[in-house]
Amino acid sequence: MSNPKPIERRGLLLVVSSPSGAGKTTLSKRLLGSDPNITLSVSATTRPMRPGEIDGKDYHFLSVEEFRRREQEGQFLESAEVFGNFYGTPKEHVFNMLEEGTDILFDIDWQGKQQLDERAGGDVVSVFILPPSRAALEERLRKRAQDSDEVVAQRMAMADSEISHYAEYDYVIVNDDIDKADTQLRAILMAERLKRRRQTGLRAFVDHVIKPHD
Ligand SMILES: Nc1nc2c(ncn2[C@@H]2O[C@H](COP(=O)(O)OP(=O)(O)O)[C@@H](O)[C@H]2O)c(=O)[nH]1
Ligand SMILES: Nc1ncnc2c1ncn2[C@@H]1O[C@H](COP(=O)(O)OP(=O)(O)O)[C@@H](O)[C@H]1O
Question: Which ranges carry the Guanylate kinase-like domain (predicted)?
Answer without folding.
Answer: 11-190
